[in-house]
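Hi C.,

You asked whether I'd gotten around to modeling the 295-residue construct. I have! Everything is below, sequence then structure, no commentary in between.
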Amino acid sequence: KVNDERALVSMVVALGRVYIIQADRAGALRIAEEDARLVEQVRDPALAIQLHTQLGTIHTFRAEYARARAPLTQALTLHAATERESLVFSSGLDPLLIVHALSSLGLWLAGWPDQSKRQQHHLLARAEQLADAFSSAVADIYAAFLALLRGDLSEAHQLADQGIRLATQHGSSMYSALGIIVQGCIAVRGADLETGIKTLKKALQDYRATSAHNLLPVFLSFLAEALSRSGKSEEALATVVEALRISETNLDVFWEAELYRLKGELTLAQSRPASRVERQDTSQSERQRAKRTRG
């Protein structure tokens, strides 16, 4: 049993970060319960900010955007009240970076693109204020992902390049792989399918090697899209099925509707050629029967 408030919160936040990166739904939900309990007890605003941030993160990945808004807003309010330059605990990340990144993602997914873009600007501004390479790498890569979702491919490409360079310099294999995955997705959306497929297959393998599973269903959907547009419908469908299987236990569930849409389109596309073949076979059988009857 941990009695020291700071040690306990740091331990919970660190464990929660592991569950979030691994997209361990069951583990993250247990941590969310502990976050909610502790945030009512802690006296230090800096610790409360960490707990609110983690709660908002988990709710966002669970597609509970309205529920996520309260803790994320509270984290910003507490930070403004304490006027602290940087709050980095066991998670290794400034909480405001996470707040702005998750707020931007939640707003975009909820259908508020302009507000989402403003939060992305706050994310990059916060990284510039912190002025350290790791924070800038994380901010650039998440901002690249957000720009990709909005369809701003030129901005996404520039941010991903910057983020990968900084993550590589910092020695972060997970964020380097994440940035390269975003580059692969940009290639897919830019119709460079061969590059997109090659990049995604290699980068997803590297990303998984770090034990990271967060956002895998999203990235697999981009790979499936590229495979489908390249005429590899069977491999595309298998990729979507894998993404849906992962979504059954992953923390991030907000992409499930898109995965089911892709699965439906691919299944329908595969059934169409089969239907034509069946009709041809039926016509041929009828002609053969007619010949036998005439004979």
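If it helps when you're writing up: Confidence is low (pLDDT under 50) at residues 274-282, 289-295.

Thanks,
B.
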